[in-house]
Write a structure and sequence with these properties.
alpha/beta, 2 domains
Length: 185
């Protein structure tokens, strides 16, 4: 960034003061998005009671609405860079497995004021799976999410099949094996 009317020496002196400010801002913002090593829900745990608002029609949507299907719940936000990177892969997973009973519920933890950004995000990435709004971020507590994105696969009986903290790498064999196992049960 060049500031008009300042000498190169003045700009060099200003840089060191700017770096601590930028570093402090990143220290506050980045941990909210980057996953930690802490586990979320574990296999066999009952799916938590959770309800959010469907983006499509504004009606409540609950995990019990998906009983009898394999449900991948994905907590995300429009401002989360790893979430943005993961979304095209989740869409491809949905397209590949929906005929075998997989449903995906993407739960946006964006603020109510950012609902237009959620709609834009869904259109930008061509998301066809269900999206719910959770502006109070209740889902982060309910699913024991320690970062975004966080995904939890719930089996047909309403129990946790497995959890994933952080973005799911495209084609990850552990993820695919876990998903295949859940679909086979």
């Amino acid at each position: 960034m060049t500031v008009r009317g300042t000498s190169p020496q003045a700009r060099r002196r200003a840089r060191p003061r700017l770096l601590p400010t930028v570093a402090a801002a990143l220290a506050v913002l980045v941990p909210a998005c980057i996953p930690s090593e802490e586990a979320t829900l574990r296999r066999g745990d009952p799916a938590p009671a959770f309800t959010a608002i469907a983006l499509e029609d504004g009606n409540p949507v609950s995990l019990t609405d998906y009983r009898g299907q394999i449900l991948l719940v994905n907590l995300w936000a429009t401002w989360c860079h790893p979430c943005r990177e993961e979304t095209p892969y989740l869409q491809s997973v949905y397209e590949r497995y929906r005929d075998r009973g997989l449903r995906i519920l993407g739960v946006s933890v964006d603020l109510t004021a950012d609902s237009a950004a959620v709609v834009e995000f869904v259109h930008e990435f061509g998301v066809e799976y269900d999206i719910a709004l959770d502006p109070e971020a209740v889902s982060r507590e309910v699913f024991l999410a320690r970062g975004l994105p966080t995904s939890v696969v719930i089996d047909r009986d309403g129990a946790v099949a497995f959890s994933w903290v952080g973005p799911i790498p495209e084609g990850d064999p552990v993820f695919i094996e876990g998903l295949e196992a859940a679909l086979a049960r």
